[in-house]
């Protein structure tokens, strides 16, 4: 949950999640849709799918207990090099080289590694390996992370207060903020799309997104796969009397920004349902487990006043 997300944002989700599914066995037996709904609003939904897959592997292959070696942890869904090393070192007391963003910064500075990120990652890992002790490597890793978070900050590191100042090449260079160097980021592409509000008798038509791709498996408004051209042209999911609202929702994903137009229609009573989906009472949309993008869209429609 904490990947790319702050402790403040995660707290309540973590409490509820671990109360609902207190161990691997309980999570492994959970319904996918319930887990996705519990994650709704936290973003980066691949994490929810991975933690579920991971629980199922842990139950099927490891009798419901996490394996203790870095190599075995690395094979589990959703566990990458950082997490595997952190679990092995901190939870199981094994020697492992733990490198998160804070450690990357401290080590780049200690050794004045001038190659830019991300190309410098192998050099940083090798440098961290060279100073990681054989015992208590978990404590060492946490101390380095804390040093990065509290003293060796991105801007204005507090070198006079730093216990590693005596060994720090970047401080000696007089410009520690120059490390780590970064390759400039490319601008995020802008995509456009349409969402469709189909309403009947106090209910809204919701669909479940495909099992693969962005927001996979989440409940959502029907949309056009966000392939609309910049002029807003798009193909609605069903033939209907569409009325485009004068509102637009913007949302930023990891790899692109999205501008979403919204079209609304009143679905005739007695007509067949508009495809695969579910009629959801407007009054309890907050319980539908919708991801943030579609919550924003719904709020925009409700605030727009008269709609169908
Ligand atoms: S001396 Fe300064 S730059 Fe070097 S590790 Fe400490 S806080 Fe960071």
Summarize the structure.
With 308 residues, the chain is of the alpha+beta class. Helices cover 36% and strands 14% of the residues.
Helix content: 25-40%
Oligomer: single chain
Give the overall form: elongated
N-end to C-end Cα span: 39 Å
Stretches where pLDDT is under 50 for at least 5 consecutive residues are: none
- Which architecture of the domain at 190-303 does the CATH hierarchy give at level 2? Alpha-Beta Complex
Q: What's the gyration radius in Å?
A: 24 Å
Kindly report the CATH topology of the domain at 190-303: Nucleoside Triphosphate Pyrophosphohydrolase
Which molecules other than protein and nucleic acid are bound?
iron/sulfur cluster
CATH superfamily of the domain at 190-303: Nucleoside Triphosphate Pyrophosphohydrolase
Structure, described:
The chain is α+β, with helices and mostly antiparallel strands and 308 residues long. It has a domain at 190-303: Nucleoside Triphosphate Pyrophosphohydrolase (Alpha-Beta Complex), CATH 3.90.79.10. Helix content is 36%, strand content 14%. The chain has eleven helices and six strands. It has helices at 7-20, 24-28, 32-39, 46-62, 70-74, 81-91, 101-110, 121-131, 137-150, 169-173, 292-303, and strands at residues 190-200, 203-208, 219-220, 243-252, 257-266, 278-281. Strands 1, 2, 3, 4, 5 and 6 form a six-stranded mixed β-sheet that branches. The chain is elongated and about 75 Å long. The two termini are 39 Å apart. The mean pLDDT is 92. The chain binds iron/sulfur cluster (SF4).
């Amino acid at each position: 949950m904490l990947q790319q997300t702050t402790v403040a944002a995660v707290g309540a989700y973590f409490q509820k999640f671990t109360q609902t599914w207190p161990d691997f066995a309980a999570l492994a037996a959970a319904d996918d849709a319930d887990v996705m709904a519990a994650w709704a609003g936290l973003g980066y939904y691949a994490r929810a799918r991975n933690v579920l897959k991971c629980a199922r592997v842990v139950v099927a292959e490891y009798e419901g207990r996490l394996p203790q070696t870095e190599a075995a942890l690395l094979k589990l869904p959703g566990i990458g090099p950082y997490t595997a090393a952190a679990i092995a070192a901190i939870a199981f007391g094994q020697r492992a080289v733990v490198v998160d963003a804070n450690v990357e910064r401290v080590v780049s500075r200690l050794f004045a590694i001038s190659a830019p990120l991300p190309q410098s990652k192998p050099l940083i890992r090798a440098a961290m390996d060279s100073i990681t002790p054989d015992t208590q490597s978990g404590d060492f890793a946490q101390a380095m992370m804390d040093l990065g978070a509290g003293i060796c900050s991105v801007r204005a590191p507090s070198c006079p207060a730093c216990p590693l100042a005596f060994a720090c090449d970047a401080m000696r260079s007089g410009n520690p903020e120059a490390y780590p160097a970064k390759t400039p980021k490319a601008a995020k592409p802008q995509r456009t799309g349409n969402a469709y509000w189909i309403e009947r008798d106090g209910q809204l038509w919701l669909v479940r997104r495909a099992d693969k791709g962005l927001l996979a498996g989440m409940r959502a408004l029907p949309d056009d796969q966000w392939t609309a051209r910049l002029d807003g042209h798009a193909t609605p999911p069903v033939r209907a009397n569409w009325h485009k609202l004068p509102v637009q929702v913007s949302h930023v994903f990891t790899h692109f920004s999205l501008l979403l137009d919204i079209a609304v229609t009143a679905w005739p009573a007695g007509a067949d349902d508009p495809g695969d989906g579910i009629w959801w009472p407007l009054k309890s949309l907050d319980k539908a487990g919708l991801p943030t993008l579609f919550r924003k869209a719904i709020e925009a429609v409700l605030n727009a006043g008269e709609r169908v």
